[in-house]
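Chapter summary example.
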Amino acid sequence: MSRKPRKGYYVRGQFVAEGSELDLQLKAELKGTADASKTDLKRESAELQKLGESLLTLRADLKARLALPDKLTDALDALKRITNFEGRRRQSQFVGKLMRQLDADTVEAIRTVLAEQQQGSARETLALHQAEQWRERLVADDGALADWMAQHPDTDSQQLRALIRQARKDGQPDAASISQGLAPRRGRAWREIFQIVREQLGGADNDDNEADADADADAAHGDNAEHAAHRYRP
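The structure predicted for these 234 residues follows.
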């Protein structure tokens, strides 16, 4: 009497009977691989959507270098205008869908310009901190001017020395400020020292910095000394 053929399949030349322990093990491994693939796709989709949303913060000159599809550009413009939470969520998903349609080179180009912008912002922040530290030293320490001139001999030493004297004079608190616990009001010399230092350190003469300094100086005069010192920026 002939045996009934067993149902199964071959894996690398080995027969695997259906329902056997090896069959169940292989099917479990296959299911795990499929689940992992779905997880990877979901993670990649979320990453591309977040990358697309980051384009909203991109500077215009960097964005122009990407030559993004009009449909994606329009979707981003719409996302920028939407304020409703649910509306923004749906629009963000649509942006993510359009991002998934981009080729790999375009996606990589987007990552590159976003990283370039981030690095530029970090350098600018560091330069501002360095300028602030030098200004503090120049006004507080008599020996700081000699150190500065040794490192930056192109600076107009007479102008800087006059500004330092004026900044020290402006920084002396008056009786009203002392009685009210206010920080000394910073004058124009304080801001002009910052501009000179910033230029010598390689930064552009940014009118926005001076405007911010004016606003912060006025705000500082209305706060207590400790709070004003913490908040003041050029």
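To summarize the output: The chain has two domains: 9-102, 125-231.
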